[in-house]
What we know:
The protein is mainly beta. It has helices at 2-18, 147-151, and strands at residues 29-39, 43-50, 58-62, 65-75, 80-86, 89-97, 103-120, 127-141, 144-145, 156-159, 162-174, 180-190, 192-199, 202-210, 214-223.
Amino acid sequence: MKLRHMAAGAAAVALMVSTPAVAQQAGDVQLKLFATGVLPDGQIDEVLRDDFGLPPGSQTRVTDSFVPTIAAEYFISDTFSIETICCVTPHDVEGTGALAGVELIDDAIVLPATVTAKLHLPIGDVFKPYIGAGPAYFFIFSENVGTGAAALGIDDVSLSSEFGVALQAGADFRLNDHGLGLSIDAKRYFVGTTATFSAGGTELIRTDHDLDPWVVSAGLSYRF
C-alpha cells in the first residue's frame, strides 16, 4: 500500500512537471500595475520668437517624474496584442546654460495617451519578451509660471499638446498558472511641444522643445 501511494505521488509530481504552462491566447486580457519613471529631455530645439532677449546659450530641461501607471492589454492572437496605458505625470521646466537656476514652468501635467501594437516573441511559456510601436498624443495642461520666470515679468505660460510615436520593448514573466506575472517595460517616445511665454497679454517668447522621454516601468500583471 505504501509503495503504491509513493508511486502514485511520484506520478502526480511527474505529471505536474510535464504539464505545459497555460499560455496567452486570443481573447485574453492582461492588466498591469506599474511603478514608472518618466525621464524626458526638454531641450530647446528652435527659438520661434524672442522679443524678450534671451541671453546666448539659453537652454532648458524638463524634470523627471515617478508615478504609478496602469496598462490594459488585449490579445488578438497568442503572439499579437494591443495595449494602452493610463497615467498622468507632473513636470517642471528649468533653465540650463545661460538660464541655469531659473524656474520657468511649474507643475505641468502630462497625460501621454498611447496605444501600441505588440509582437510577443515565441520563446517560452515563462519568459515572454515583446516589442511594440504605436501613436501617442501628449495632453499637457495645468502649467504654471515658475518663480524664476515670474521674477523676469512673465505672467502666463503654455505648453502645446502634440502627437508623437512610441517604440516599446519589454518582457512578461509568468509567476503561476493562475494569470499572475511580473512585467518590465521600456518605451521611447518621440514627441515635442511648443512653449509660449507672455506678459500682460503679449507673447514674448515662443520655443520648440524636444520632450522625447524614456518611460521605464516594472510591476505586477494579471491575465484572464
